[in-house]
Amino acid sequence: MSAAWVIPCSTMNATPWANPVAEPLHYIPAVLEAHLDQGAFLWQQWYDERFGEQPDAAQGGSAYERLAPHLEGWLLQPAAAWALYRERCALGLADAGEHFLGAGLALQGAQVEQVRTVMDEAGDCATLMAIHDAMHQLPASRIRPWAERFATAPHTTLSLLGQLFIDPALSGRSTPLPADASPGLLEFLSLSVRPLQTVEAALVEAAVRLPPADRFRVGRHLLGTANRGAALAALLPLTLEPSDYRDEVIRRCFRGLDQATAKHWIQRLKTSDDSTRATILAIGSLREKALLPWVLQRLHEPPLARVAGWAVTQLLNVDLAERGWIAPEPAIEAPFIDDPRDLNWPWPDAESITAYVYQERATQQEENLAARP
After folding, report:
1. According to the model, what pLDDT value does residue 193 have?
2. CA triplet 98, 156, 231: central angle to 5 degrees?
3. pTM over 0.85
């Protein structure tokens, strides 16, 4: 960064958490490290609850509230905290949560060189969002000076970050996106720019040209926008190929999909690798209850039992634990037992679930007969 970047400390108001130039206080290194570890963990939880597959505002708010004390403790010892942050970076142990705390130190202390150091670590979407969130922790009067310096920087990512704080819809740009925007920046913008449709459309166009994994990361956040159709066109082909993100892309794409399009893609899923699992995920995401009997049959097939159990929760809108429909893990040794895709799902009690469904169906038929004149 050039000298023009320097923001004199006199232009910065005192931070509400700490005075960045105060005399160092006595501190316990283990406590400072705990602030870093817990603060980074809670920021990641806050991020996941905002932008994950199923956002939860209440859980995100709780994580943010618990994050605040760790921010305060972290900022009390800026020199020691910065040294610890850089040590984590040097060891390759710094994730987006650590970068949030590092950016907070640099911005609160008006340390331009430190800001540049953090930006050098910012390649993926989560780290860019961490820096964005750190900016929001500043008093409003201090955000604008930083944003103006960022906006005029030759660094593409830094410039866009500054422009977002000045003009959240990027409506003042002559072209929606920079030609050299990285996949991480594109994903960050897909989360940040609302509700300007021209930018969203440009993001979809850019996503189509990306390799499959990057296309998924950018496109998934555009499924809830006015450009959903174009985003689906970019992402639905990814449901046919095995990948680490295939389950998620199926769940996201089939949720709310119209019947004609869903029927077409389910037929295509049936001819793909691992087709039965993919079809179960699609049916659960569609909440297509007419196909529940087929899903119930899959409950009795151990390699598919857990994903079928998940589909049942979607089709019946139930919680297996609350219903008491959880079975013990099968006492067998097989690769599917430790399938990482299913580790967060319980083993369903196939007999109890099936009995309930058919009893409910019989009861409904009796009620329908009784209601006839």
Report:
1. 64
2. 85
3. no
